[in-house]
User: Fold these one by one.
Assistant:
Number 1:
Amino acid sequence: MEDDKGEKLLVSKIRDGTVIDHIPAGKALLVLRILNIRGSEGFRVAIVMNADSTRMGRKDIVKLENFYPKFDDITKIALVAPTATINTIRDYEVVQKGQVEVPKLIEGILRCPNPTCISRKSGEPVTSKFILVSRQPLRLRCYYCGSELTEDDVSKQLTGE
Amino acid sequence: MPWQGRDVVDIRDFSREDLEILFEAADRMLDELESGNVKKRLEGKLISLAFFEPSTRTRTSFEAAAKRLGAETIVFTAEEAMSVAKGESFADTIRMLDSYSDLIVVRHRYEGAALLAAEIARAPVINGGDGRQHHPTQAMLDLYTVRRLFSTIDGLNYLILGDLRYSRTVSSLLYALSLFRPVSVMLSSPSELRLRDEVRADLEARGLKLREVSIEEGLREADVIYVTRIQRERFPDPSEYEKVKGSYKVTRKLLETYAKRSAKVLHPLPRVDELTPDVDGTEFQAYFLQARLGVPLRMALLTLVLGGDA
Ligand SMILES: [Zn+2]
């Protein structure tokens, strides 16, 4: 959180929870959607959009009180906001900080676009597997049938559009 | 990579050297078949032929190959997949076959089925065709036929004609060709049936140069004319099939007008109407030889994978 000073005016610090920083500007709402956070969960959520960033020019920040993303959540964040950093907060202090990264193999989170892919066959105990072909632009390839997913396909799938 | 114990799922897993070992073994099998004295290399082996999608040609070719070598076969067909194993998953059926087979040949209409079977099974898996993706043994057979006809695979002009979009034999053949040094690889198809972009990009990344041509232009240059039927069963929308049905036809007259005298026509068979029967009696016809070579080629493949004396 290199430039937290400016935001203090906008949003107060959280006591315990997670700050997702360095989200590409304009993608904070997308990040909330893929985490399935709608605001009705009861915990405090703060969103800062188009904040100044020395590294990125503009960025978004999401603060989530008493929410800690799981492993799959972090993969999902990496897929739509590859520059994001995740800060774990305990008693107002950052106790853990990490940059998200799209793993080379993504299991289970995404669905193959090909209806006759074996990973889509009903009643089959098979988990989808995607191999990372390129990070920028994002391209993933189905391990089973070779069909590809773009960044756009991935965002659509993760938000259920 | 050694052949023994290897899964044969995707032609891209094989090198030129692997294929040459296979072709040399197939030559020996062919000699033995012709002399009527085939060594029972696979006596005591049990081979399962799991054909979830019907295919008389590929199945009987594998079955004949296995039996010539003295192996026993268990044939599991689409009808059995429907009735005997009602409600059973593909994965469980593979596990069942794996528990008593030394090798499993799988054919399925879902892409990636053979890869999944190979993950599950302890026994080696040979892909007898999965969806519109791979048909490695057909590609091996196609190039083996070219090698028998021309004594080489390099240095020739290839024309691939027809349904390049849904035909798995075409993509597998093109991948196999990328291991060799053809002079040219020409593609001719109705625009709706052009090669899929991802396949094309992958082939070009492997250094295979592809050129789109008209049938006539392609025929003038080609040494190998590879004709495929329209893969009706793989069209997502039947009305799309109606649009392209009968859109190309290779006839004796067309060949006599444009093709080189020494050119040979290959076809993975069965055919519908894209290759007329009047070609059968000409010097161009090589598809019956191609079909016949399926047995020695698959004998070599089974022997190599099962570690027999090839
Ligand atoms: Zn797939």
Number 2:
Amino acid sequence: MAMVITVAIAVATELAIVGAGPAGMAAAEVAAGHGVEVTLVDEQAVPGGQFLRQPPPQFGVSDWLGDPVYREGRRLLERVSADRRLEWIMRSSVAGIFSNGDDDGDEPFTLVLNPVGEGDSGEGGAPRQLSARRVLIASGCFDLPVAFPGWTLPGVMAAGGIQAFVKSQQLVPGKRFLFAGSHPLQLVVADQIVQAGGSVAGVLFAQSSSRALALLKHPSVLLGNADKLSQTAGILWRLRRAGVPVRFRQTVLSANGTDSLESVTTVPVGPDGAIDSDAAEEIECDRLGVCFAFSTSSELARQAGVDCRWDASRGGWIAKHDDNMASSVPGVFVAGETTGVAGSDIAALEGQVAAIGCAAELGKIDARQAVELARLPRRQLSRRARFARLLSELAWPGASLFDQLMSDSATLCKCEGLTVGMLRTQLGRHPDIRTASAAKLLSRAGMGLCQGRYCHFALTRLMARQLGVPEERVGGFTSRFPAKPVSIGRLIGDDS
Amino acid sequence: MKDIDVAIVGGGLIGCASAYYLAKAGARVVLLERGQINQGASGQNAGSLHFQLEHRLIQNIEQDARELAFYVGLAKIAIEQWRGIDDELGFDTQLSMGGGLMVAETPEQIELLERKSRIEQSQGLAVELLDREEARRKAPYVSECVRAALYCASEGHCNPRLLTPAYACKAAELGASIVTGAPVNAIRRDRDGWRVTFRNDARSDETIRSSAILNASGTNAPAVAAMANLHLPLFPVALTMNVTEKAAPRVPHLVQHVGRKLSLKQADDGNLLIGGGWAAVLRQRAGRWSDSRSPDLKLASVLGNLRVAADIVPLVKSLRLLRTWTGTTAITADQLPVLGEIAEAPGYFAAAGGSGFTYGPTYARLISEQMLTGKTSYPIEPFSPVRFGVLNAFVG
Ligand SMILES: Cc1cc2nc3c(=O)[nH]c(=O)nc-3n(C[C@H](O)[C@H](O)[C@H](O)COP(=O)(O)OP(=O)(O)OC[C@H]3O[C@@H](n4cnc5c(N)ncnc54)[C@H](O)[C@@H]3O)c2cc1C
Ligand SMILES: Cc1cc2nc3c(=O)[nH]c(=O)nc-3n(C[C@H](O)[C@H](O)[C@H](O)COP(=O)(O)OP(=O)(O)OC[C@H]3O[C@@H](n4cnc5c(N)ncnc54)[C@H](O)[C@@H]3O)c2cc1C
């Protein structure tokens, strides 16, 4: 159903939207409605983003995302998919956003696109360049990688990754699942596993039951669809009926196994947040879903020069913006999780506001119309955003928990094979190293294929703690072109 | 009585290596770095050890022959120094001196190789002109386009991530005090020395008194000179670097081009580093260039640089580009380094410019000798700031 269009090497558009999740789709619909020429770019084969992850066309999944919680999102997806005004470039990752200098020509931005799935059928061709007058970055988030001994063992997964399987293919990858974290998403995924016929050994929340239940009363805010307040009760009931224990003040200490996951060591978390390793228990399972929080995909925004600030419970580096969702870089807008993790409803509302801002800048509507049009989504946003922020804090287990899990034997940087202990030793030897970038230069942490996506949080925490400074002072890794690795042959148009 | 003998401004390669050589000779040294050690050009460069005359130096080979001959002489003592560097520092800096090729694709380029090889050989630098077959035998990874190459057996590369911190550690072991997060913001003459003021950790100003100052602040050297009412005509240039994913070891040499901008090598970690002097865009603030953020990347530079690399070393095309970055380095109008005392300001020394990774250890050693004894083991007069003559004749 998604339209994969084949285009020439370079194309132009008025508004380029990076990311076809709820934020990007909502923005596209509104912008097109005001006569803006829109091109959506996404690295997935089909639109929908994380929330509405669709099955690949070859899987004829019958009751795809049947739950009413997804209804609104599915309608949006159906509308934009059928919208003939929109251009789509799917299976293309945006490797960089370049500003074409001071000449305020017609298209001040060039996006370098890189087809994903290199090597297969040739649907890609050479990376294309897309020039645009305005850019909206709505690149979403991913599960926060948490470092503890054994977290890189096959079988240890992000709860979101497990969910992606269930959502897109309805396959249950594994025999016996355990979930550990602090985010309500893990309950949703556990429930989906049970419904798909899988076996779940338990769901562990690091928080106290009162904190977690306060959060679970309003799961819909963090998980989309505000009208579905009865959802949690249903989930908890189904889990109880399936005999799945939901425990509080418990968390993972280590994942154990030789070649793959065989068991998980769990520990109680005291009222002061300290873990008690003496009271460790071992639970047998072959899949561990980890679900503490999400991390924004901020590399593209930062590469484009967008100012960000640090907010650990809302995704790490989050883009600053004004009331119109305009970023610090003139012409570049931001929406959705890029501005802080807050769920799909808020992402969609931000997308609408950003689209109105773009339409105004492009002269499609005048300033008064823009204010008028943005009034409703802004009002809904401010109400929900405040609430979402509160809930994010309830879902956040606190940095000290991560500090305790990060023992010396835990892997820190998978790509370069560095452990927490190795980093600590190097930092101890160079007390003058005080920023993440300097530590990276010294140790190679963050220099591998993932470019720090999976280790930046752990490294930032480790340094902040060791130096006794806030994360903001440690700073992020500098984000550079390309946002993800690109084939050089393709980049220069010569893959002979 | 001064607090210390030497205050060094700047914690790049030149500053840290100078701190080491000075401390080793027993001097009391404080090094002040505004940010982190190795955060400037010294940690961002390509790590090439170029001992044969580089592309940028031979654009006017006829006029510059005399200066170039002198520069080649410096290469010879740098080679000796590099051979002992790991032993001296007691550290594996991932130094590789497996040879370097400068390739040519056209008859004109071959002629240029011949001409420059005559200057190099006249100074006793061992270089060897290889024809197409010899070049391909030595370096089977180069393409058919390569028609000749000038080979210098001492060339190679070293890891810029490791060298400067290693010098800093060793200097500290010998008693030098290395202070980071300490921007120098004022320099005043004292009766028989200098007062250097910097911002300390507690965000207040602190002043130390020293007999001498070494300005090793890289692209910021003109500003640090201006603090003492002096002129230092160095200019910032912004450059681009590319790095590929890791690959099996294939390229044991430093590869350069005589007529196109290219430097290429394979680091110990397996990644290919590709640069060669492609421009980036210096940032502006209030109508002046600003070094508060790294320069903007130019897409055309990335594509251009990768094109040359792929033409000469085709295996590049099968790799993925992992990352690019930009950095800023300082050059003079005559492309030679600045090394020496400013005659009008006794006790104020400067060391900056010109392929400062390859020659940084040597600049540092020579300037330390001059500061300690007034003499150097290799003549540095041609690099002295005295050549800017009249500029500092009006200092107040
Ligand atoms: C694994 C996971 C599971 C989740 N499950 C739920 C859930 O069940 N319910 C819920 O309410 N919320 C869930 N969330 C949160 C949910 O992602 C957000 O609330 C919502 O999807 C945010 O919308 P968005 O448009 O900001 O980002 P997303 O929906 O993440 O969309 C971003 C899109 O951008 C694309 N993209 C990113 N970078 C690039 C690039 N460089 N080039 C091209 N395309 C790019 C991605 O492919 C993606 O399609 C989940 C999040 C994750 C990470
Ligand atoms: C992309 C690139 C590639 C290069 N490739 C090569 C190569 O392959 N081979 C080669 O030989 N050379 C190369 N160079 C050049 C080489 O990197 C430089 O010449 C050399 O590193 C200069 O060292 P430095 O110590 O003078 O300066 P820097 O390393 O820049 O150090 C200066 C330091 O001074 C500090 N400072 C500035 N102002 C103040 C102040 N007021 N107070 C306190 N501290 C201050 C700065 O923070 C900085 O850390 C390259 C340069 C670049 C940018």
